[in-house]
Amino acid sequence: MSDNGVSKAKPAETPPLALDRVHQGDCLDLLARMPDGSVQLAFADPPFNIGYDYDTYDDRLAADVYVNWSKRWMAEVSRVLTANGTFWLAIGDEYAAELKVVATRELGFTCRSWVVWYYTFGVNCRQKFSRSHAHIFHFVKDPAHFTFNTDAIRVPSARELVYGDKRACPTGRLPDDTWILRPQDLPEGFGADADTWYFPRVCGTFKERSGWHGCQMPEQLLGRIIRSSSHEGETVLDPFGGSGTTLAVAKKLGRRFVGLELSAAYAERIDARLAAIEPGDPLDGAAEPLKSVPATKDGRRLEKSRPRIVKKRKPAAEPSQAMLFEKRRKQR
Ligand SMILES: C[S@@+](CC[C@H](N)C(=O)[O-])C[C@H]1O[C@@H](n2cnc3c(N)ncnc32)[C@H](O)[C@@H]1O
């Protein structure tokens, strides 16, 4: 047993996991095949234990079972990280507080930032506020030694975005975390001293969406994490591969990577996603979503609109995002 009461991994009986691919199986079994101190960055977006419908995993564990299981796989993540390694954990409201306590007080991680990811197009709710955020913890093993590449993740300042001030620093500023509405409704919500990460969720109608995994994260969000917390050539681990976003972004950004995924069907799809991209390929999605949002005034777009050709009896159009959203709302 280690100091924190978690069983240490058994000595590897099978060869260590190969890099630059996804491995299908249970993450605890697979992590046990990874050497100590072999990855610089781990990103985990585990099942949130909220009854989500995965193809093989049952996302309805008793709360204690879920927290104990989380402690076991996080302890393994800690073991395989280098001494100056970084662990990013994405988690929902239900277990954010408990897993943070496990990670910091029981496993010895230091929390550098509790980031709130605000997203649009969350599932619409009737008797409570619709959820539009997830928590992303930035943990490090050693608070005195860790990678944080600030120049790789700078964003435009409010001076530039909102006020068009020529004195705005051309290299922007570090991102931050606040309560906001949509940027087109409240541009001042992204003030110079805020740290909200605005990335739209990869919703059904987005070109980026692979369509076969409901929890696909945006590439740009993983881009910020991987750029800030690792260098080219270093190894990135994702114990819960899902649709393979972390691995795809790691490959595009010139990192080595190891992905683990319980579902054989998802792992097969991840393989195909990885085979279709090359290092150096651009990440999907808008690199700077705030700049890609059209400016509006009194509910109208300020950009010059193209002349509209009005045809009689227009054939049925593709449903818009708003229509799909409304349809989904009515179905609930
Ligand atoms: C929330 S999703 C990850 C989504 C991913 N971040 C993405 O962008 O596509 C969690 C994934 O963990 C997988 N999973 C569940 N239990 C697992 C386990 N014990 N070992 C490995 N993967 C597991 C599920 O099949 C699911 O695909």
Please give a structural write-up.
The chain is an alpha/beta fold and 332 residues long. The protein has one domain: 3-Layer(aba) Sandwich (Rossmann fold), CATH 3.40.50.150. Helix content is 26%, strand content 16%. It contains 9 helices and 10 strands. Helix 2 crosses helix 3 and helix 5 packs across helix 6. The longest helix is centred in the N-terminal third of the chain and has 18 residues. The protein is globular and about 60 Å long. It starts with 20 loop residues before the first strand and ends with a helix. Bound molecules: S-adenosylmethionine (SAM). S-adenosylmethionine binds next to strand 8.
How would you describe this structure in keywords?
332 residues, Rossmann fold, 8-stranded mixed β-sheet, two-stranded antiparallel sheet, 9 helices, 10 strands
- Name of the CATH superfamily: Vaccinia Virus protein VP39
Helix content: 25-40%
Q: What is the approximate shape? A: globular
Bound molecule types = S-adenosylmethionine
Most strands sheet: 8 strands, mixed
Give the overall average pLDDT: 79
Gist of the model:
With 332 residues, the chain is of the alpha/beta class. 26% of the residues lie in helices and 16% in strands.
Please specify the SSE layout and strand pairing.
Blueprint (H helix, E strand, L loop, with lengths): L20 E4 L2 H5 L7 E6 L18 H18 E11 L1 H14 L3 E9 L14 E8 L17 H4 L35 E2 L20 H11 L5 E4 L6 H8 L3 E6 L2 H12 L13 H4 L3 E2 L2 E2 L19 H11 L1
Parallel strand pairs: 1-8, 2-3, 2-7, 4-6, 7-8
Antiparallel strand pairs: 3-5, 4-5, 9-10
Helix pairs in contact: 2-3, 5-6
Bound molecules: S-adenosylmethionine.
S-adenosylmethionine binds next to β8.
